[in-house]
Amino acid sequence: MTFNYLHLVGNAELIKQLNYAMIYRLIVQQAPISRIQLAEISQLAPASITKITRQLLKKNMIKEVDAQQSTGGRPAVSIQAKFGYYQTIAIQLSRSHVTIELYDLGANSLAFEVYPLTTFTEQLAQEYLIALIKQFIEKNNKKVKHLVAISVVLPGLIDSVRGIIRYTPHIQVKAWPLADVLRDQFNVSIFIGNDIQSLALAESYFGSTQDVDDSILIRVHRGVGSGVIINQQLLTNHNQTACEVGHIQIDALGERCHCGNFGCLENRVVHKAIEARAKQMIEQGYPTKLSLDNINISNICKYANQGDELALKLVKDAGENLGRAVAIMVNIFNPQRIVLAGELTKSPDVLLNAVTSALNAQSLEELRNNLTINCSTLNDRSAIGAFALVQQALFNGSLLMTLLETI
């Protein structure tokens, strides 16, 4: 669920939610921390800190640890988050498989399963997904002690506020109300989101953009997706989507894209396009260690790292095209960090050099002076992006208040 502060009325319940969320986030991110320090940082009254921490302790969200060294008077007791009491199920519903992962509230993976996806109609996919979740819970019943949320991410146009899937490229859907269906089945909080946007959020919470406020993640795979983080918040709009970077035009004379435009980024950098170009050049006699029976993005990156001329050209060309799109986004959003994800990052030096070269040629110098570009530190095949939606709900207080009020 997207949490838009602009749409909220400043009533007592909202203030309570925001205060609890602020204190919980401080404890998670700055532990061990004392109640005195919490009061100083948050500017809340000591009595309010005592009340909030008492409830968090009661609900097994935090714990007291060894006392800090006294600076005069009674020693201050430190507090840190307690992650192991509750569990969440995070699911990545990709084009070919379903990844289901069990996490505690500290983003620690407790169990992991991958299942094939061969059902591509809404009703059959729904029945299959419910059956897989039940099977997963039964298999891991000793670890699933206090399940509080299920989150699902997948490609496409996702209304995360209403929990409705408007469009996904691999399943025939018509306003699929997946959140309501799963909530009725499992009676826990449900979160639905776009897979790449959620991965950007995960990078902000657990990956290489934790130390910056503004960042952009771009992932190249079968398509090109992106997620934009502004002031540590995921950028979305009225349609719960934004920044279709894959359909930025980088070559006006390029091939027609499935979107109807010509020369889209997606047509030049996705795996299928790079592999097709490799096949064409091999057939034309271009010298390379690659052969027609081993052309895949993994091998292309592998041989690029070994200095193979054709493989280097393929990765470099993809990086330069990607860099042109990155330059446009830098000119618009002025991020502090760009993060690249996908299998192309298996040739990081070649890719990053090519992206940086194109970026420097086509973006404003003042907007890139403090910009860094790196490859993702997260496993984008895992369900960490889905768990990031749970973390977001804890940090904005929506799920946190549910736990405090109902469990």
Give an overview of the whole structure.
The structure is a single chain. Helix content is about 40%, strand content about 20%. The protein contains 14 helices and 15 strands. The two termini are about 20 Å apart. Strand 4 and strand 5 form a beta hairpin. With about 400 residues, the chain is α/β, with parallel strands linked by helices. It has three domains: about 70 residues, Winged helix-like DNA-binding domain superfamily/Winged helix DNA-binding domain (Arc Repressor Mutant, subunit A, Orthogonal Bundle), CATH 1.10.10; about 140 residues, Nucleotidyltransferase, domain 5 (2-Layer Sandwich); about 170 residues, 2-Layer Sandwich (Nucleotidyltransferase, domain 5). The strands form four sheets. A five-stranded mixed β-sheet has the order 6-5-4-7-10, with helices on both faces. Strands 13-12-11-14-15 form a five-stranded mixed β-sheet, sandwiched between helices.
Descriptive keywords:
alpha/beta; Arc Repressor Mutant, subunit A; Nucleotidyltransferase, domain 5; five-stranded mixed sheet
Give the helices and strands, then pairings.
Layout lengths: L11 H19 L2 E2 H8 L3 H13 L3 E6 L9 E5 L5 E7 L3 E8 L4 E8 L5 H18 L7 E8 L2 E3 L4 E4 L10 H9 L2 E6 H12 L8 E6 L3 E7 L2 E2 L31 H4 L1 H13 L13 H9 L3 H25 L3 E6 L5 H15 L2 H4 L3 E4 L8 H12 L2 H9 L1
Parallel strand pairs: 4-7, 7-10, 11-14, 14-15
Antiparallel strand pairs: 1-3, 2-3, 4-5, 5-6, 8-9, 11-12, 12-13
Helix pairs in contact: 1-3, 2-3, 6-13, 8-10, 9-10, 10-11, 13-14
